[in-house]
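Support request from a user on the community tier.

User writes: "When I paste my structure tokens into the form, the page sometimes reloads and wipes my input. The last time it worked, I copied everything first. Here is what I submitted, just in case something in the input itself triggers the reload:"
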């Protein structure tokens, strides 16, 4: 009987502890959205009070109505699909090349001597300054847009990969060698995992940058995409649609960041700093 009472007390105690834990977890998930929600509330109240001109900054409800109309007509999905394809393609090309060259120059001193100076000179040229030259090279087709964004996302991945490879603890490498690891096994089991946190920082930064560059590249005679939709709305003074485009970039950028952090937590689950 005594054992049963103790057991029930233990269950009740555990339930009491679990409830605050559950509330803390929900509050922790909601906390990052408090400031955006407050800003939107202030924006709506200011518009209703007449402090903001609807021509300059429409109220949030008007922006929501514009987004709903674009969604129902199917126009929004078409632009989002086109922009997402451009972003993913450019990231695959630019990020992939950045990763490969970062691994190459980070691993081999001769490759660094041959390539790094040239790449650092190119890095200091703003991607947007290449627009006139890119139009001469590729015209105004998709290739020009993909090239511009690829150049922009190349360098964050390249630099962080190079830095990650060079920052691996030398003592750890020596210890692995003393246990008989060498060649590809040493690279795969010690050097690459050691460089992975820095590589993923570069990937995360590049995923954010891709949307910034995309909005500019989609102004180059595009016929679809969020940038085209925004520029087209500007011509007709549709400020609510312009804001829909800007908020879409913000949401897609946030989504890309969440995906990158999820990949980071999964691949670095062994790392004490990411648990």
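"...and here is what came back when it finally went through:"
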């Amino acid at each position: 009987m005594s054992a049963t009472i103790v057991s029930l007390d233990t269950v009740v105690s555990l339930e009491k502890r679990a409830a605050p834990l559950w509330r803390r977890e929900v509050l922790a998930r909601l906390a990052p959205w408090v400031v955006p929600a407050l800003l939107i509330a202030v924006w709506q109240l200011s518009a209703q009070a007449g402090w903001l001109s609807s021509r300059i900054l429409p109220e949030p409800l008007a922006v929501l109505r514009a987004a709903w109309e674009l969604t129902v007509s199917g126009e929004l999905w078409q632009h989002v699909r086109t922009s997402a394809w451009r972003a993913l393609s450019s990231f695959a090309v630019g990020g992939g090349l950045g990763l490969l060259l970062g691994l190459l120059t980070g691993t081999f001193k001769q490759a660094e001597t041959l390539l790094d100076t040239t790449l650092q000179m190119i890095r200091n040229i703003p991607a947007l300054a290449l627009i006139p030259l890119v139009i001469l090279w590729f015209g105004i087709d998709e290739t020009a847009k993909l090239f511009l964004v690829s150049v922009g996302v190349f360098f964050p991945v390249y630099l962080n990969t190079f830095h990650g490879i060079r920052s691996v603890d030398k003592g750890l490498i020596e210890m692995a060698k003393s246990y008989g690891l060498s060649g590809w096994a040493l690279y795969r089991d010690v050097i690459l995992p050691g460089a992975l946190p820095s590589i993923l920082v570069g990937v995360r930064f590049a995923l954010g940058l891709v949307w910034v560059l995309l909005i500019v590249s989609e102004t180059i005679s595009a016929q679809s995409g969020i940038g085209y939709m925004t520029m087209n709305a500007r011509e007709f003074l549709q400020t609510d649609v312009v804001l829909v485009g800007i908020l879409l970039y913000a949401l897609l950028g946030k989504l890309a960041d969440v995906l990158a952090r999820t990949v980071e937590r999964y691949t670095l689950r062994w790392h004490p700093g990411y648990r």
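Agent notes: The reload is a front-end session timeout and is unrelated to the input. Residues 1-5 have pLDDT under 50 and may be disordered. The chain has one domain: 61-268. Escalated to web team.
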